[in-house]
Design brief:
Order of helices and strands: EEEEEHEEEEEEEHEEEHHH
Number of helices: 5
Number of domains: 2
Largest sheet: 11 strands, antiparallel
Helix content: 10-25%
Number of strands: 15
Distance between the termini: 21 Å
Structural class: alpha+beta
Radius of gyration: 24 Å
Shape: elongated
Strand content: 15-25%
Length: 328
């Protein structure tokens, strides 16, 4: 027999899903490369009907301010509400991708109307940029010393992290559903806020006339129409993602202890370094019975760590041997 670990009673944690509003958003216009729209009500991606030149939108969320530090993200959904499509010749649907932006940019204050309102009239061309606006040419416009993009039209990853098909249903929420790449984006922004430059909304068809879709921005008057990011997460020690850090999570870790490269969080990789080892056990130890906010504290006195780790490893080995005997 293997000695049992003495654990505090498991406590259910808070519902670990949070919804974040955008921190900044804006549109860039190829045919008006020095125009901005950071204070406008709309975000545009695709071509208009007159110039057939593309628009690209930028959006960013302050993940580090909105989520508890140190958590593991396992689901990310972006929702935008459609406010406009071309009046003439609009394609039936447009595929719009989310591309991580690789340089900082400014939202600015340029607007064609006086927000807050919910209208889109006259938004599709932008207006002469003010200092601090993002434009097609510059990530920070300035009459004296502009800061240019490395490439006009924005610096971004060529591969989208997610995409969705947008039809022509006005005031409908369109969702970019969670992908591994979206999760990696948001996890990276949480762990390294200095690298959070948000996403570019880029239409897959920037050649055909009238492909654009216009979404309500964070400046629109009706709060329910503003962009939002829904993030589900867990404590690093909650391997089964059931909102409780408890003995069941220890069993997950024991079953996979020693797993090498490619290990998943759901297999006991608490520190996301690709393997399941003693470091992951220590994370579980500190968080058992704790909630994600405020930060977890040690639930078991540190001097017992080495002994507990030895017992946990032995218990895991005993279970694996028992399973092997049963299979033979």
């Amino acid at each position: 027999m293997v000695a049992a670990l003495a654990l505090p009673a498991a406590q259910p944690v808070m519902a670990m899903t949070m919804t974040l509003g955008a921190k900044q958003d804006a549109t860039m216009f190829q045919n008006n490369p020095d125009n901005g729209s950071g204070g406008g009500n709309g975000l545009f991606a695709g071509t208009n009907g007159a110039q057939t030149s593309p628009r690209r939108a930028l959006i960013a969320f302050d993940v580090a301010a909105g989520l508890p530090s140190g958590v593991v993200i396992h689901d990310v959904d972006l929702t935008l509400f459609l406010g406009q499509f071309p009046n003439v010749g609009a394609v039936a649907s447009s595929t719009i991708g989310l591309h991580p932006v690789t340089s900082s940019w400014g939202e600015g204050l340029t607007q064609q109307q006086t927000p807050p309102n919910d209208t889109f009239g006259g938004l599709g061309q932008g207006a002469p940029a003010l200092d601090g606006d993002v434009t097609w040419n510059n990530r920070f416009h300035s009459a004296a010393t502009p800061t240019a993009w490395t490439n006009a039209g924005g610096d971004f990853e060529p591969t989208s992290s997610a995409s969705t098909v947008v039809t022509r249903n006005l005031n409908t929420g369109y969702v970019w559903n969670s992908t591994d790449a979206l999760i990696d984006d948001v996890q990276g922004w949480l762990d390294n806020p200095q690298a959070n430059f948000g996403w570019m909304l880029k239409n897959a068809d920037e050649v055909t006339p009238a492909t654009f879709r216009g979404f309500y921005s964070r400046q629109t008057a009706t709060a329910d129409l503003r962009p939002h990011l829904t993030v589900s997460f867990s404590l690093p020690g909650d391997f089964d993602h059931n909102d409780v850090v408890d003995a069941a999570d220890l069993t997950v870790w024991q079953s996979n202890a020693g797993l090498g490269s490619g290990a998943l969080h759901t297999q006991g990789d608490a520190d996301l370094d690709g393997d399941v080892d003693g470091g992951d056990f220590l994370v579980w130890q500190r968080q058992v019975g704790q909630t994600p906010n405020p930060p977890a504290i040690s639930a078991i006195p540190e001097p017992t760590t080495a002994g507990l780790l030895a017992v946990a490893l032995a218990a895991g080995a005993w279970r694996r041997r028992a399973a092997q005997r049963a299979a033979n």
